[in-house]
Amino acid sequence: xxxxxIRPRIRPRVAVVLVYTAAMxxxxxxxxxxxxxxxxxxxxxxxxxxxxxxxxTAFLVALAVGxxxxxWLGDRFGxxxxxxxxxxxxxxxxxxxGLAPDLSTLVVARAVQGLAGGLLTPVxxxxxxxxxxxxxxxxxxxxxxxxxxxxPALGPPLGGLxxxxxxxxxLFFVNVPIGAAAVLLGFFGLREHVEGPEGKFDTVGFWLAxxxxxxxxYALGFGPSQGWTRxxxxxxxxxxxxxxxxxxxxxxxxxxxxLKLRLLADRVYGSxxxxxxxxxxxxxxxxxxxxxxxxxxxxxxxxxxxxxxxxEAVGLMLASQVVDRLLPxxxxxxxxxxxxxxxxxxxxxxxIPGVAENAWSVRxxxxxxxxxxxxxxxxxxxxxxxxxxxADMGQAMGLFQIVRTLGGALGIAACAAVIGGGHVTExxxxxxxxxTAVWVTAALVAAGAVIALRLPREAxxxxxxxxxxxxxxxxxxxxxxxxxxxx
Length: 487
What we know:
Layout: H1 12-30, H2 38-45, H3 49-52, H4 54-77, H5 79-99, H6 103-131, H7 141-165, H8 170-173, H9 175-189, H10 203-226, H11 231-253, H12 267-298, H13 302-307, H14 310-330, H15 332-350, H16 359-383, H17 393-418, H18 432-451
């Protein structure tokens, strides 16, 4: 036996779920975990807070830049290869962030993290959705909720705890063992799928869409706090908008576009993508502004304010347990519309004077937000790709993530603009502007309920099978068996 190479046998579906969850948890957590540590990072490096803010902005801008090419890269070079390459880069960049001797090194490593994260999310979801046909995706609710909604909510309190009791370096070090284990498991357990993109790489589309998303993300990140008239912000917003319009016009006319915008014409997928943007705007907006309102109303500490949103995570976990049971019975439309209306009502309740002053009222409402909004978000993610075939799955996932990312950035920017910008980390004496911003998030979620009316009534149904039919793709295959390669 000494001459034989013994390799672990891992079912591809199990490997996909485990690797996806680990990678997306790292990515989702890193989008919010650094915020509570920015003051500490600035102090350690002897730099002003405005300079330390570039740590977070670099991550978000680079993440937006990576999204447009994710689908094409996965189709061209294989989803397994691209996903594991991005995960490896993300893990190494995390170690460099933790070891960074100065702010410049930290910012560059954080940008690499963001770029890898921009590839991880759409390619990872492509791997997941290709492994499970539409009628089996309802069982993915427990998997999808953790990285997409739970981790961003846990980021602020976890970041505060680690920074206060260990050091800000551990915000990044925690990724290293998880990322290394996920890469190793993915190497042996994932199956390769090379779709083979049609035609040549859309160079024009790349040079239009990529800087457009980066510039717009930069403007949305700095505009509310530094002022929209500041030259760098104003130029980024204007140029990014022009490039985005040009990119859309080009993508519509191109024979082999970088982004298949025609997919948005599909009633179900187009509605799901719009819902993803609106709900992300509402959720990210309220997670941004409510801790500030909590501080303004109660004079709470930053850590207490971060912990005030923790019950939302409990609600999200409960939602993940019930969606797969309710969706087959109620269907996407009947499950999503009431959930969004209730979520909008809960958001509005948070803005009522006297509510934020009661800690237990806040906890109960945050739990309801996680429960009802989590139900809607999961339903949209599961049912929105029913009409998308395997060949277009990579492109569809890329578009979906672009819309959701921009929606979240717009939600935060809208709330920051309403509360007046400035030093938003310092709670003002008057909670009025913060309450107004919460009303804005409620209106966004209510608008989502109107869009949700376009979702189908019925949940995806399994195709008829004979006893002699082959099992679903990926079932029963072990690592080392022939990969699924097309093109």
